[in-house]
Amino acid sequence: MKTTCTILLAAILLASSCVSLQTPDGYASRKQTGWHEYKAISTEGAVIAMRVERNEDKERGTLAYWTEASRKQMTLSRGYELQKEGEFTSGEGKGRWMLFGHKYKGVDFLYLLGLVVDGRKIYVLEATGEKETFEADVPRVVQAFGTLD
Amino acid sequence: MLSPRKRHVGALLLPCIGMSLVASFAVLALAGCGAMAAKNSYSGPQPASPYWRDEAGVYAESPKPAPVSGKMERGLVAGATGGDEAVAQPAAIERKIIYTGAFWVDVYDVKQAQDELVRWVGEQGGYMEQLAANRLVLRIPADRFPSVEPKLEAMGRIDDSLTDIRAQDITAEYYDVELRLKTKRDYLASLQKLLDAAGSLKDKLAVQKEIASVVEEIEVLEGRLRLLSQQVALATVTVTFRLATSGPKRTFQLPWEWLDLLGTEYLVD
Questions:
Q1: pTM
Q2: Partner residue opposite B264 with nearest CB, options A69, A70, A128
């Protein structure tokens, strides 16, 4: 009973965590975000989204650990190709971003993944779009990842 | 019991058939020698990997190409049919092999993979024969056949349990058809000479009927030889693409569900 209450409390805390991201130019945020805390769409159909996941082991589940786990997930299990990666700093702490290239419905796409780990929380920042149009947005979106607060 | 007309044609053709049989025997004897010589004169496509599947589908060590000295020609030498003429030495016989391959490949984008493969086959000098749903049938020059598997490996994950590569040696059949064709052509030439020499209308009609029959047989043999040549020149490759749904390079999944939900597929509505 106690465990269930703790899990419920943690879930409520996570769900109600007030976290924000500044929407970059050329994008408009949506209210209906589904499972994401935040979602924004460009006129070209590129999407930026953010969600918060629970970090079960805050000692071992470091930014390096989750970055490596995500990289392997995307490259080995999903067939994405890592093109670039880097760091950013946000209000919730240091983050890492990775840019992947892949095909989606026969079209070249880019997928940008940013991670910030803050204790029990993992902030998962994602953005994707057709390579042709989204490539120019990437620096702006990485900058927006840095506005996580 | 032959009818009088058939006996008449038979009497006319007997010397001619006799000559043809002698010629055929000589040519067959040469072909036999040639076939034995062919064992050490592999000149078909060379596999890229050190192991290759033999006719029975079993991997075996790749056949080593024999050093080519001089011009590789088809084994039969013209002029070997004359009775008193010197018998020419048979040249090394080129082996005739039909290559076929069937592959199942898991890819992340079936349409893109199909387009890429068709384009690549075109660059190799081949073409697409059939496209049905996710199955492609391609014809590719036989000497490019060994490069198909590495190409597919670079595109996705090949399901080895379904891969079927065959090399069917039709050398004997090919040269048998070729020999029969040559014999028929020689016979036709003899008939035409006979036709010129025939005196009566009855004789001419009988020979002409035989000529028509031989021409028909020649056409059938030519068609068969053409088909075999095409099958040898162009390997047939069937590729079935499947949408890869799980990891191509790892056999385990991390237990955190949110990792499975990363990616464009879950962001784009």
A1: 0.43
A2: A128
Beta-strand relationship, B97-107 and A107-118: unpaired
pLDDT digits (tens, 9 = 90+) for A18-56: 788 999 999 999 887 778 899 999 999 999 999 999 999
Q: State which residues form the domain around B44.
A: 4-243
> What is the four-CA torsion angle of B265, A123, A82, A146, rounded to 10 degrees?
120
Q: Is A40 on the interface with B (CB under 8 A)?
A: no
CB contacts < 8 A (A, B): 67
Structural domain contains residue B248 = no
| Cα–Cα dist A94/A137, whole Å | 21
Reported as a single tens digit per residue, the pLDDT across B85-139 is 444 555 678 899 999 999 999 887 788 889 999 999 999 999 999 988 788 999 9
ipTM: 0.86
Give me the amino acid identity at A133.
Answer: T
Name the residue among B101, B94, B95 with its Cα closest to residue B146: B101
Q: Which secondary structure element, helix H or strand E, spans residue B239, and what is its range?
A: strand B234-243
Domain count, chain B: 1
Residue A124 with chain B: CB contacts under 8 Å: 258, 262
